[in-house]
Amino acid sequence: MLTTSGMLQDKVVVVTGAGNGIGRAIALAMAAQGAAVVVNDIGTGLTGDGLDDAPGQRVVQEIQAAGGRAVASKDSVAEASSAERIVQTAVDHFGRIDCVVNNAGILRDRIFHNMSVADWEAVMQVHLHGAFYMSRAAARHFKEQQSGALVHMTSTSGLIGNMGQANYAAAKLGIVALSKSIALDMERFNVRSNCISPFAWSRMTGSVPTDTPEKAARVEKLKQMTPEKIAPVAVYLASDAAKDVNAQVFAVRNNEIFLMSQPRPLRSVHRGEGWTPETVAEHAMPALRSSFVGVDRSSDVFTWDPV
């Protein structure tokens, strides 16, 4: 039900990819905390193909049935002009824009040597370009009103690594850099930009293979991590309570919230006379090797069961 004095009372929020899964859960939670919500979803399948005209409208109806305010948008984030229309929908219907949640995404997983240019470009266009287009469209309004929040969905596929996802991983790690740059450039206007790396069972993770008993067991554990577990952090980051939280990357895994590291120097070696290829091999690499980062997948790092 709608909270009449929630953390987002009188705020206006755009949530992209909000017709299903994590986006839907975030849109409902934003509305429950008092926000007016633009529910953006073009209604395509997991790969960006196919069409279902109704998912965004169904979420709008859920919000309205609970006493909230919402409007549907079917424009694509993957084009600059349509991203502008999504943000303008918020302004036209609710008079302002206070937060954009960049959640829209597709998957086209391929082992790297089989990945086509089309697979690469489609995923980049929705995830990385879409986050840029949406953030840029909102930035002018944020600057004028001297406030605003951006919440971007990243992934441990980019932060750590996963097989068969070069396109997705590159886009998702690019979003972290985009978010940090926005935070640096827009902080002077009281605009914040943060990332969430969500662990949740949704259409995006529904393609995880279950061809061995071990993989099937892991999928059953993943199903405990519902999209609703992600929404509270997104609501918080959109709210004034997070006014001092900027340029951070959080991961949410069932009932756990992590602050993720960002690249910083780990160790150094110095040679006053400079380096040759031979001394790099003989001195630098042996000295640095104990701090090398492994060729890890996300599941190699998050090895424990969700709690």
Protein architecture, described:
By secondary structure, this protein is of the alpha/beta class. The chain has a single domain (12-262), classed as 3-Layer(aba) Sandwich (Rossmann fold). The protein is 41% helix and 14% strand. It has 10 helices and 8 strands. The protein has helices at 21-32, 55-65, 80-94, 117-145, 156-159, 166-186, 213-222, 231-238, 277-288, 298-301, and strands at residues 12-16, 36-40, 69-73, 99-102, 148-153, 191-199, 249-253, 256-259. It has an 8-stranded mixed beta sheet, with helices on both faces. Helix 1 links the parallel strand 1 (12-16) and strand 2. Helix 1 (21-32) runs parallel beside helix 2, helix 3 (80-94) runs parallel beside helix 4 and helix 4 (117-145) packs parallel to helix 6. The protein is globular and about 70 Å long. The model has no long low-confidence stretch (mean pLDDT 93). It comes from Ottowia thiooxydans. This is NAD(P)-dependent dehydrogenase (Short-subunit alcohol dehydrogenase family). InterPro entries: KR_dom, NAD(P)-bd_dom_sf, Peroxisomal_Beta-Oxidation, Sc_DH/Rdtase_CS, SDR_fam.
